[in-house]
Amino acid sequence: MKLCVILRVLRGKIIPYLHDFISLFFPDLCAGCGTNLFNNEQSICTNCIYHLPVTNFHNDPQNRLAKQLWGRFSFVQASSFVYFNKGGRVQNIMHQLKYNKKPEAGFRMGQLYAHALRTSESWQIPDFIIPVPLHPGKLKKRGYNQSEYIANGIASTLAVPMKSNNLIRIENTDTQTKKSRFARYENLSGAFMCLDENALRNKHILVVDDVMTTGATLEACCIVLLELNNVRISVATIAFAE
């Protein structure tokens, strides 16, 4: 018994030093600015969090994202957490998230966003959260779905269930980068399919994506979900491209 107590105490003292020692050779770097993280910081440093260009869309039902989606599909609310500007710290974070194997940065941004949503008087907490899915081929190549990490950060903070397997991508479409909004939507038509429809009927679902550009991907996902009986949809992204 005494030995167990001693080992527990030693573990509590040794692990922090071991972490510091490993950090000398493999430092934890901020996804936003690249500086070393302190022990209490997760993926994004305090300075970058403080300087995030927050949109406050969640406090304005008639925000720019909502207006961009009006008339395209029915939704309860739409919001983005931060503005995306080229060369800024948000672009750095999203690049690390998507291309440099830093999915934990997405989880952290999801946590931060959820804290903002939770304090909003106008934002309605959903029944379920669904991330925009990746095609299995792209998922295998990247190793993870960045939107799922974001959604998980939001879900865990709001204490709302996440259903990552109820909406799947069945077509691996061409790159969207240089397409117009209409061409993007046409490219995505029929790309998504809903599974276990009974679990989603009569529910308020929050669909989560990483960056809002034209909204074609969100539109294609939400139209599929809205075919279910009495489903209400809200959408949220981490970044809003200006």
Which key phrases capture this entry?
single chain; 242 residues; alpha/beta; Rossmann fold; four-stranded parallel β-sheet; two-stranded antiparallel sheet; 6 strands
Mean pLDDT rating:
88
CATH class wording: Alpha Beta
Which band does the percent of strand residues land in? Answer: 5-15%
Strand arrangement across the biggest beta sheet? 1-6-5-2
What Rg do the Cα atoms give? 20 Å
- Record field, number of beta strands: 6
Distance between the termini: 61 Å
Give me the strand/helix succession. Answer: HHHEHHEHHEHEEHE
Helix content, binned percent: 40-55%
InterPro entries: ComF/GntX_DNA_util-trans, PRTase-like, PRTase_dom
Domain Phosphoribosyltransferase: 147-238
Family: Belongs to the ComF/GntX family.
Protein name: ComF family protein
